[in-house]
Structure formats: C-alpha cells, structure tokens
Specification:
Blueprint: E1 6-8, H1 13-18, H2 34-39, E2 42-49, H3 59-77, E3 80-82, H4 86-94, E4 98-105, H5 114-122, E5 125-129, H6 152-164, E6 167-169, H7 175-184, E7 189-190, H8 208-216, E8 221-223, H9 227-230, H10 237-251, E9 256-258, H11 278-287, H12 292-311
Parallel strand pairs: 1-2, 2-4, 3-4, 4-5, 5-6, 6-7, 8-9
The protein binds zinc ion.
Length: 312
C-alpha cells in the first residue's frame, strides 16, 4: 500500500489564534489553516495547547478555552476530524480527511494535579510535552539553569500517562529530565519538535547520544522548522534534510519524523513558510534519491506506528 500519510507532530495554531480571539474561518492569519492543510496534504496534524508560563493562576481556564477552540474550529472546518483513538484516526484518513490530534505543551498547566491530567485525557488530549523552557512541577526545562530531573510529581504524571495511553513528549526538557524519563518509560518516547545538536548547537536540539537512546524506546523525533534550531543563519530545505539524514544515520530511519512548530515560528523562512508547502519537502527528498519507503517513514509512518502502540 502506498498511501503516503504526512504527520506533523507539533503546531502552535491554538495559542496563536487565542491571541486573535479564536476566529472561525477556513483561512487564518498564520501558518496553519484549512487551506494550507489541504495544499500541504497533511494527514495528521497535532494541535498543541500552549499557555505561556506568565499566566499563572489562569492555566486551566486558558487550557480549556484552547481545547474548546480546537473542537469548534475542527467542527467548522469539517474536513479535519478530531481523533483520540486509532480507529477514528484510520477512519478519518480513509475518508480523505485530515486527523487532528490534541496535545498540551507544558505540564505547568496541570497545576500539580494528576486529576487534571486525567480530565484532560477525557477531553481528548493524547500527548503532553512535560515542560516548556522553564521549570515546572514535573521537571526543569532546557532554559532552567539548575537543569534538574523529574520530580516525584513528574514521575507520577509519567506513570499515569502510560496507564492512560498518552504520548510522552520530551521536547523542551532539560537533559537530566530527558535521561530520567527514558530510564522510567515503559513505552516509546517522542520529541515532537527538535533537531540534531551535532548539526546545530542549540540546547533545544538533541545530542547523538540522546537520539540513539530515544530511538531505542521505539519513539520518534519530529524535525522542526524553527530557524535557530536548523542553522546558524538562513535555513533552507537542504538544512532541514541534512537534519533528517543525520538523525536517520544516528538513530535509524524508523525513528525520525516531522514536527514543524508552525504558528510558533515568528520568522518563517522562504522555502517552507507554512503548512501548505510540505509537498516541496517530498519533491526535494525524491530529487536527493530517497526511496519511497524512507520518505513514507519520515513523512508519517513512524509517528503512526507510535500512535498505534501508545493508543493500543
Ligand atoms: Zn515548543
């Protein structure tokens, strides 16, 4: 079967549109909307709820508002189906629709409550990025100087996520937390949006050792379009592909995917300005001699494997 499915494991559309007052339109100001998902032939789009840490005291309320928008927007779009289990995802793809997966970026919104995690799961959240850049109740982010590991609460959340069948996302996590998650995790762990540190030395990127160990869990690294995670200056498609190729060489072709961070990129670059331009990447991979199987895996098959495993 050569049904090429593109999975994008991260975008910030919900929080970006929160600033616009949650518009219900097919064309949005930004990098992801119905038109662009169609043009980009996106099969599965993760939509991350993100509440900036400075909104302490309003975390859960703002999380609920973004979740509410996710369901209202996707109902308006019709061609994008919210999915929270494997059967619905498969069905959406077979009907030619895009599947929308609800995620949360930053465990600070749990406000230290495992009950909040369980309720978010009931609301359809199927992926949690444990931290953002700073420290929270679960662990320290890459931007925290102490760079500590998982707290007792963090370990509790990790266990509960595995019980529920929620994807564990280590993007933004400080290295010590990263290693602890890998030590405690029983299933695949993902880094929804991160690149190779060997090619671009930024703390948000993963070292070769981290890439190998994350791959050993059966998880996937989603290569991201954020300019400063791709190259020191002027990123191009060739930089992006160099990251894909290096990650595949180090960790294996089965453990690399895509996690654009569209709508979280203040300065998009010309070759990949938005979700409508994914076919350019596919074309370029073909030009560079990638075989169909490798393209299929990186484009989406690898993330689909993980979703299927975690959602059981
Ligand atoms: Zn992020």
């Amino acid at each position: 079967m050569s049904l090429l499915v593109l999975v994008d494991a991260h975008c910030d559309t919900l929080s970006r549109q929160a600033q616009q007052g949650y518009p219900l339109r097919c064309q949005l100001e930004g990098q992801v909307d119905l038109e662009r998902l169609r043009q980009g032939r996106v099969g599965v789009q993760f939509f991350a709820v993100f509440v900036p840490p400075e909104y302490r005291g309003m975390y859960l309320r703002l999380t609920l508002e973004q979740i509410d928008y996710f369901y209202r927007l996707l109902a308006f779009w019709q061609e994008v189906e919210p999915v929270a289990d494997w059967n619905s995802l498969e069905k959406a793809l077979l009907c030619g629709k895009t599947a929308g997966v609800l995620a949360v970026e930053g465990g600070h919104v749990l406000e230290g409550s495992v009950a909040a995690l369980r309720v978010l799961y009931r609301l359809g959240v199927r992926c949690l990025t444990l931290t953002w850049n700073g420290r929270n109740e679960l662990a320290d982010g890459v931007g925290d100087e102490a760079g500590g590991g998982l707290s007792t609460f963090g370990r509790q959340v990790l266990r509960e996520m595995e019980e529920l069948g929620m994807l564990v996302d280590v993007a933004h996590l400080a290295p010590s937390g990263f290693w602890e998650v890998l030590r405690h995790a029983r299933g695949p762990v993902i880094a929804s949006h991160a690149n190779s540190r060997a090619l671009c030395d930024h703390p948000r990127n993963l070292t070769d050792e981290q890439v190998r160990e994350l791959a050993a869990t059966g998880g996937v690294i989603g290569v991201t379009m954020v300019p400063r995670f791709l190259a020191a200056e002027d990123p191009t498609l060739d930089h992006l592909i160099a990251h894909l190729e290096h990650l595949a060489e180090v960790g294996g072709i089965d453990y690399v995917g895509l996690g654009s961070d569209f709508d979280g990129i203040p300065e998009p670059w010309p070759e990949m300005p938005d979700a409508g331009h994914w076919p350019r990447l596919v074309e370029r991979l073909q030009q560079r001699g990638w075989d169909q199987e490798a393209i299929d895996k990186v484009l989406g098959a690898n993330f689909l494997r993980v979703l299927r495993a975690v959602w059981r």
